[in-house]
Amino acid sequence: LIFCFREDPPSHAQEGSDDAEEIQWSDDENTTTLKAPEFPEFTAKVQEAISSLGGSVFPKLNWSAPRDAYWIAMNSSLKCKALSDIFLLFKSSDFITRDLTQPFIHCTDDSPDPSLDYELVLRKWCELIPGAEFRCFVKENKLIGISQRDYTQYYDHISKQHEEICRSIQEFFKKHIQYKFLDEDFVLDVYRDSRGKIWLIDFNPFGEVTDSLLFTWEELTSGKNLKGDQGEGEATEQVQPCVFRSTNSKVTVQPSPYLSYRLPKDFVDLSTGEDVHKLIDFLKLVRN
């Protein structure tokens, strides 16, 4: 996202360590001014879609939504009212960057050069209660696990109604989803409203690119430790044929998994030692 503005900087002198070198800053008539690209037809089409959906939308690409970039928005939300709001979230999101640069990571395919058409998906904005969202894991067309979506928080109503919640999700899956999806392995997110009605929110790939929340992908792919095992700090209730997991006490509350995305990538690489060159440069600065 390029912001087009022009400012006349004053001329100033900068002295080096040995020789004084004067650097003149001036506006040259031959200097090319960068202009932000414009897409009037696309902008009008997106704005028309936003208006038709009530004026506020939730944006995403084919697979991911920019959940990791909510903090950069003025309202600290993914609620968008204009194309500029969508651009801001997308350009700040690692999830969107991954979709654009590594869309087939952790995937195997017979095609050596798979083609992909990206789509901007806009959904009508709805205020959802985080404690009413659940992620369901389906393997071979069987619902094997249900996890609390916002596992960083403890919700008393989930602990009290876990059997009813699990049963209603299973009934919804059996009636509306099972054997009707193109793939037999997938992940779906659902929402249970105050009346107990289940709403389908989204589908996700069954694999490491999707957050397994209170499960591990080793458990989900192998089927081990799913039957009757109860890990410390989390509640596991087996309601055949799937396992329901939720945060069962305030002691197990965790920080938001999106907090780390607020740090510049250089800081993260430096702290983890993943970028050797940055670490060397930092040590040189400390030594000097």
From TrEMBL:
One Gene Ontology cellular component annotation held by this UniProt entry: cytoplasm
Pfam families: D123
Function summary: ATP-dependent protein-folding chaperone for the eIF2 complex. Binds to the gamma subunit of the eIF2 complex which allows the subunit to assemble with the alpha and beta subunits.
Family under the similarity heading: Belongs to the CDC123 family.
PANTHER family: CELL DIVISION CYCLE PROTEIN 123 HOMOLOG, D123 PROTEIN
Protein name: Translation initiation factor eIF2 assembly protein
Organism: Aramus guarauna
